[in-house]
Structure formats: C-alpha cells, structure tokens
Specification:
InterPro entries: Cupredoxin (IPR008972), PAD (IPR004303), PAD_C (IPR013530), PAD_central_sf (IPR036556), PAD_N (IPR013732), PAD_N_sf (IPR038685), Prot_Arg_deaminase_cen_dom (IPR013733)
Number of strands: 43
Distance between the termini: 29 Å
Number of domains: 3
GO molecular function, one term: calcium ion binding
Strand content: 25-35%
Subcellular location: Cytoplasm
Helix content: 10-25%
Family: Belongs to the protein arginine deiminase family.
Number of helices: 10
Function: Catalyzes the deimination of arginine residues of proteins.
Length: 664
C-alpha cells in the first residue's frame, strides 16, 4: 500500500491533516521533541489504526500495545478506512516520556479528517477471484489480466455531422455514448472540506491528444449535459463541488495504437490543499486509472461471413450475379457499389480491409481504408462509415505508394500456434521483398499501424516477383473440419505440370485450355502438349515455384504449419515485364463464404466433358465439406490481372476469443 505523504506534528499547537481512506500517512514525530524524551506512546480515536515499524526485518506492529523507546529509525503509520462525518472528528495523540518524570513531558495532537476518493472504471476483471485488489495504475494482458479498455470512437452516429465522432468535440446524439467507456469519480467525506480544498482531473498533454473526456453535468438524457473537459488542449479540469457521492465521465479514444503510441492512456484525480492563499495549492493524494485503446483486428476467411461487397462495372453483370447467388447460399447480406460511385474501379478488395474493435461493452466493425486511392477512394468513407461502423486510414505524408499498398496484399491467418507461442487471433500476412533487398514494400505508415496493434503480429512474405504483388495471388485459407480447423491453399506450378503430364500420359495431350472464353478475341487456345513443350514457360514456372517455396517455409515456420495443413493448388504463371502474372485464372484467389467457395473459372483442358483443373480442385476441397462454384471472371477481372477475391470484399463475424485474454 503506497504512503500518502509525510506529516510532521508540532508540540506548540495541534496539527490538522486530511487523509484518504485506506491510504497510509507517515507521521514524523522527531522534528519537535521535548528535551529528555526516552519513550513515547501513541493512541488514536476509534476508527484510527496506528502502526509502528521498528525495522525492515520485524515488519510493523500495532502502536497502542506498549510504550516505545524513542528511536529516530521508528516509523509511525496512520490509516483510516472510513470517511469522516465532520472536519477534524478523529485524532492521534502522542505523549513523550522520561524515566525521571512521573508524568508525560508533553503531548502532541494530530487532528484527522478522512475522505474517500477513487477514480474508477470497468477494469475488466471478470473471472478473477481477486478483482477488488488489482492495481488500476497497471494494464495486464492475459486470461488473468485486467485493465480498462477504450474504443476509438471512429464511427459517425449522427449522419448530419460532417466528421467522425473522434473528430468532434461534442456529443451529437446519445447513441454516441455507447462507444465510450464510463469513468466514475467517487468522494465521501465532509462537504466543508472543499471550502479550501479542490479535486482536479488531469492527464498529460500527450494523452490528451489521444483521448477525450466528457463530464455529465445535467440530465443524462440530453446531449447538452455532456461537457468536454479533457482532450486536445484541455489537460486539467477542476471538478465542481459534488451534489452526491459520485460524478460520471465518458471517455472516448481518439487514436489507434501506432508508432510511438503503445495504446496506454492514464487519467488522474488529485486532491489539492488550497487553504493557504500565500502559496499555490499543494497535492495531498492522487488516484490513477490506465486505459488501453482497443486494437484494430482483422478477420480471416475462415470466420463466418456477414456481408459481401462487390462493384458493378460496365462488363461484369454475370460476375455480380454469380457473387449474389453465392452470397444468397451462404446467407450473407450483399452490398453492390454502383458504377457511378466506383467509376469503373472494380478492385474493392484492394481499396479496404474490414475488421473490428472490441471492448467488454461494445464491438464495432471498422473499415481500414488503403492508401491506394483509386476511383473507389471515397467509398469507405462516404458509404461504409456511419452509425456503429468505424473508419480508419493511414497514408504516407509524401503520398508515395506502390501496388503493394493495396489490401489484396493484406491478409490474416486463422488462429495458430508457432514455436510454442499461441496466436489466438491469427497473424497478419503482408507482402514485401526478400530481407535486405531494395524492392517494393508496404508503405511504412501502414506497417507501423499493423505492428502497433500487437494482437496479430505481422509476417512479411516475398511478393515482389509478382507483377501486381499481392499475397492473395498465391495463398488463401479455407475452413476444414479437422486438424487445425483450416487448410492453407498455395498455388503450385509443380502440381499443375504434374496434372498435365498425367493427362497427356492418358492420351489427352491435345485437350485445350481457354475453350469457351466468351467475348475475348485476345485469347487463343493452347493444348496440354503445347504447355508441356514450352521450355520458356516451364523454366519460368520453376522460378515461380522457388519463390512460392520460399514463402512456404516462412509460413510453416511463422504459422506453425505442417505439410498436412497445406494444399497445393495447380496454377501456372507467365512473365510480363519480368514479373509474374497468372497464366490462367488464379484458382486460390477465391471468395470464401463459410463452406461455399467462389473460385475463378480456370478454363482448363476439357477431358470427358469436364475441366480437369476444376475436377482437381474439387477433389482437393470437397472432401473438406466445401462447395466449389467456379465463377467466370476472365474478361472483367483476369485480363486485368485480378480475380474473384480481388473483386469482392467480406465483413465477417468477430472472433469469439477476446483480444485482452491473449499475451502478445
């Protein structure tokens, strides 16, 4: 238990002191001692506990058990546990004695006024047996951890307001309060104490930039009652005299964890003695609470889908219809971005990533808007941001971005265990270059943001060999009924050549790829024999396979995967400007809606009336209980170096696991 402060007693006149319930006061009796003092006695009125601490080894003893030898090393500690009814209604008396005198040499009296002050919030102690004994000044991760949580109030509950709620210093509607955390200041004790004392709520200027506090100053059912008292340029607030036992405050986060900001924010209440007009107010006691700003969390493709997004452009009507049918089967809401809003930018996966933030009292979906800023750049802010749907973005100051800053290059694994460490919310996967090389990487501000969230530590993969450069071009995750609960799909030129060699061996070497591609005169059919005799294509795909294999080893190590957790999906690539693009529609670039998969139709060789690539994929995935639907994306997407996943986006159900229960 921390000491409140040191109080010195005086023989000439009684000393009055304010103490806080449950907080120790160290009494100094050595500054004014009668000459000849050998021993002393200490007594207190009922409700005052007094202890003597002779030395570190012996601990402390109750002071009223005997007369004590006068020794400057002794410490006298006073504690009161209940607030006073009136000023100075308790006291401590110290009597000084000498063996040569029958009566005390002198008396000293310390008058006490006890108040109970606490700054409280939901410390999220559910399940802890010792929930009343946690240190509010600390924030502890894990299932036995504790600590208050703030949401970044990044939605817009009042649609008539032109900015997000975290950019607004007013409470525009009562629904806004649901996104905030409650902080309560409690005080019990004589009201007269505040004739010459005051309570000040305060924070640092650093934290004031990252959180805002509203004081309830009237009926809670009116927006006008919520006064902005801390945040931005406001770092302290003198609390008006109480009209009851408590004052309520609402706290909102303004900024997500990021480079230079761990997410921890502290608020303090300090009791100040303002009784001496000749001096500035002096602090008596400070209580502190610490909040952690909730991280932004991504959702893997294995979680339950809730809503599918797709853009309608001039040549993708059949594609949109196919996605709509898949969403219907999966029981998902479908949102179509019309052409007048997307201006023919169809890459909705690249524009945004849909995640969420969570506190014990509220879960809020939040869209992370990528810095790519294509023709879809206004869609997340203008159409998704709204009541109970938040928004966040990160853009470099110099606005220099590459194709790797599109969010097809931002994925997350399902929960994994790797190298003895649990990742119950999975790990973020971003594409970059080989370690130490100077190729393309995700812009620093996005990488800083992702790393600062802590709960899904990113893994950087090698994608600079790809023309577009996105991780979704060579991997995806699908749910599975056994093992880890998922399988990772990796593109595999080796598996494709093996399949084609088997088909040629069975006499199907003349079977053609790209038969049936509609309305595209640029595409010429090619036979299995032609593919297998194309030395340039074979050589280039060996290089591609080596790049995928490098990533495979990284993924096995960083996600704790075994070979049985990986499915190799047949796929070939070709080179354009010394970078790889899919030779036929990229099969792993799929839309995963529970057990329903929307897979790019590969237009592979037709054997016995069936596409052998489709049949191979079915044989790999349908034993897992998955339903494969092959969607023709050839002209509107594949020819533009994208596929089904690139052209769709999904809002998913949050994890059942609570992020604060993990240990980063």
């Amino acid at each position: 238990m921390p000491l409140q402060r040191i109080v010195r007693v005086c023989l000439e006149h009684p000393t009055s002191v304010v103490c806080v319930a449950g907080v120790e006061t160290l009494v100094d009796i050595y500054g004014s001692v009668p000459e000849g003092t050998e021993t002393f006695e200490v007594y207190g009125t009922p409700g005052v506990d007094i202890y003597i601490s002779p030395d570190m080894e012996r601990g402390r003893e109750r002071a009223d058990t005997r007369r004590w030898h006068f020794d400057a090393s002794l410490e006298i500690i006073v504690v009161m546990n209940s607030p006073s009814n009136d000023l100075n209604d308790s006291h401590v008396q110290i009597s000084y004695h000498s063996s040569r005198e029958p009566l005390p040499l002198a008396y000293a009296v310390l008058y006490l006024t006890c108040i109970d002050i606490s700054l409280d919030c939901d410390l999220n102690c559910e399940g802890r047996q010792d929930g009343n004994f946690v240190d509010k000044r600390q924030w502890v991760w894990g299932p036995r951890g504790y600590g208050a949580i703030l949401l970044v109030n990044c939605d817009r509950d009042d649609l008539s307001c032109g900015v997000q709620d975290n950019d607004d210093q007013h409470v525009r509607c009562l629904q806004d309060l649901e996104d905030m955390s409650v902080m309560v200041l409690r005080m019990q004790g004589p009201a007269a104490l505040f004739d010459d004392h005051k309570l000040v709520l305060h924070t640092s200027s650093y934290d004031a930039e990252r959180a805002r506090v509203f004081h309830v100053c009237g009926p809670e059912d009116t927006c006008e009652a919520y006064r902005h008292v801390l945040g931005h340029d406001k770092v302290s607030y003198e609390v008006p005299r109480f009209h009851g036992d408590e004052e309520r405050f609402f706290v909102e986060g303004l900024s997500f964890p990021d480079a230079g900001f761990t997410g921890l924010i502290s608020f303090h209440v300090t009791l100040l003695d303002d009784s001496n007009e000749a001096f500035s107010a002096s602090p008596i006691f400070t209580d502190t609470v610490v909040f952690r700003v909730a991280p932004w969390i991504m959702t893997p493709s294995t979680l339950l889908p809730l809503e599918v997004y797709v853009c309608r452009v001039r040549n993708n009507t059949c594609f949109v219809d196919a996605v709509a049918e898949l969403a219907r089967k999966a029981g998902c809401k479908l949102t179509i971005c019309p052409q007048d809003e997307n201006r023919n930018d169809r890459w909705i996966q690249d524009e945004m990533e849909l995640g969420y933030i969570q506190a014990p009292h509220k879960t809020l979906p939040v869209v992370f808007d990528s810095p790519r800023n294509g023709e879809l750049q206004d869609f997340p802010y203008k159409r998704i941001l709204g009541p109970d749907f938040g928004y966040v973005t990160r853009e470099p100051r110099d606005r220099s971005v590459s194709g790797l800053d599109s969010f097809g290059n931002l994925e997350v694994s399902p929960p994994v265990v790797a190298n003895g460490k649990e990742y119950p919310l999975g790990r973020i996967l971003i594409g970059g270059n080989l370690p130490g090389s100077s190729g393309r990487r995700v812009t620093q501000v996005v990488r800083d943001f992702l790393h600062a969230q802590k709960v899904q530590p990113p893994v950087e993969l090698f994608v600079d060999w790809l023309a577009v450069g996105h991780v979704d071009e060579f991997l995806s995750f699908v749910p599975a009924p056994n093992g880890k609960g998922f399988r990772m799909l990796l593109t595999s030129p080796g598996a494709c050549f093996k399949l084609f060699q088997e088909k040629r061996k069975c006499g199907h070497g003349r079977a053609l790829l790209f038969q049936g591609v509609l309305d595209n005169e640029q595409v010429k059919t090619v036979s299995i024999n032609q593919v297998l005799s194309n030395e340039g294509l074979i050589s280039y795909n060996k290089f591609v396979q080596s790049c995928i294999d490098w990533n495979r080893e990284v993924l096995k190590r960083e996600l704790g995967l075994a070979e049985c957790d990986i499915i190799d999906v047949p796929q070939l690539f070709k080179t354009e400007r010394k970078k790889a693009v899919a030779f036929f529609p990229d099969l792993v670039n799929m839309l995963v809606l529970g057990k329903y998969l929307g897979i790019p139709k590969p237009f592979g060789p037709i054997i016995d009336g069936r596409c052998c690539l489709e049949e191979k994929v079915r044989s790999l995935l349908e034993p897992l209980g998955l339903h494969c639907t092959f969607i023709d994306d050839f002209t509107p997407y594949h020819m533009l170096h994208g596929e089904v996943h690139c052209g769709t986006n999904v809002r998913r159900k949050p994890f059942s696991f609570k992020w604060w229960n993990m240990v980063p």
